[in-house]
Write a structure and sequence with these properties.
By secondary structure, the protein is mostly helical. The protein contains 24 helices and seven strands. The strands form two sheets. A five-stranded mixed sheet has the order 2-1-5-7-6. Strands 3-4 form a two-stranded antiparallel sheet.
Amino acid sequence: MLARILSALAVMIAAVHGWRFVGYICDDAVISFRSVLNFGQGHGLVYNVGEQVETFTNLGFVFLLVVAQAFGCDLFVAAGWLGWASAVGAVWATWWLAREVLPDNAAWVPPLVVATSTTLIGQAGTGLETSTAALFVTLGLARLLRECRSTASELERPRPGLGLLLLAIAALVRIDCVLVLGGAWFLKLLWCGPAARRTRAIDTGVFALGLVLPTLFRLVYYGSPVPNPVLAKFGLAPDVQVYKSGVNYLLEWLRTDLGPPVLVAGLAIALLTGRRVQAMVVLCGGWLFYILTSGGDHMPYHRFVAPMLPALVTATIVGWQHVFARSGLLADRLGTAAIMLGILVMAAGPQLQSMSRGNIPARSAVLEAYRRELGEFFAARAVELDRRLIVAGGAAGYMGHFAGSQVRFIDILGLTDEHIAAHGRRDPRMPPGHRAGDGIYVLAQRPDYIVFGSSTPGDLWQRDDSADLLQRIAEVGPEAWAKASDHLWAVSERELLAAPEFHRDYEFVQVELGSGRRFRLCRRRD
């Protein structure tokens, strides 16, 4: 009874903890919103009207937003509440997962750890699919472990296929979860699952459909089996700098969450506890390896870890519980619960540090409002000129969404641009998702406006002394200027600033936004 009360407490903590992040939608999420809005207006599920490109990696989540929009829901409200509900649900699912591999008196620990961590709960209101993917991954793994239980007869075993179906939904919601789907199918088939042919056939059929159906949709609708941001974010060539970024990303996450000793020792010991847990540890290790090789992410609260956080925490607690159960120091149920509480205390420092760093989405909301105004400025200019406007910039969410369908937005980072994603040059020194670019291609599109930098107050291009910045850069060249100023250009920015045609055809101007605020950007000369 106490364990159930503590698990319910974890869910309530998650609800309260996640509440403070609701209402602050990040720029990346709004890229999907623009496609949903265009779909509602009859232009198709595309970012730029007339360009059949899948500019998001959360197809399943986009389908949910399409449904919400059809019922008249505001996309920002719908995405925020869906993320919050999913985060709370993921904490409940963590308890379900923990009950499969831990005794009842210890199963409350993983959901409580997850509920107090911003790694998952911090994604609750961002408008992204992260917490929804975590919910389905956790549900899928919990069901999969149940299907792999050792039972006296096949009649007592749960029906196969449901665990992999939930993981297939997770892969539809967030495409990199296909790694978990594939790994889970392989491990169940060859390591921890039943050997019955019928069971294996059902699982393989579900796995195949989970891969084939979304791929067929993408091929038919977009002409490509892979979403465009995947090509933009992940280059195929190995790069040591990217791997270093991935290592630093994981170390920073461990520093602000469980702590390296607790996690590493827990996962290592968990490998001694049986095939089902071994399979879960392998999946967790594979996910961490994926993060390392991809370089991590630049978003707050380590969102790349979030989909597998419940599994990581649960496997870690399994390892430590195994140590204490074998030690014989405290064999009764009360003693085990006390030891689990001790593990929570060990992790309390990183947890409190993680929660006390402030509400990053709330601070970012001020910047996003600035980008929204800029998008509305472009929409007004398109109406004023009575033609389609072309704008190039790096923040493709708020600016693109509020610019409307009459503005073609060229994402100079390639997330929504097919050419840059596939053929752009890459700079591994840039943050993940910002490494690709092609300034010559951008210039060839003859954009009416080019927005450099982050398009937010305090940015290099928006400072009071930036009026003659373009001229200063032209005098010495972008490379020399960046070296002297300790600045790192995005690839497209560097190539644009180095092109004589850019300086000939564009001027640096200041415009007034709807609120009266001033904004500096480059405008093509008439």
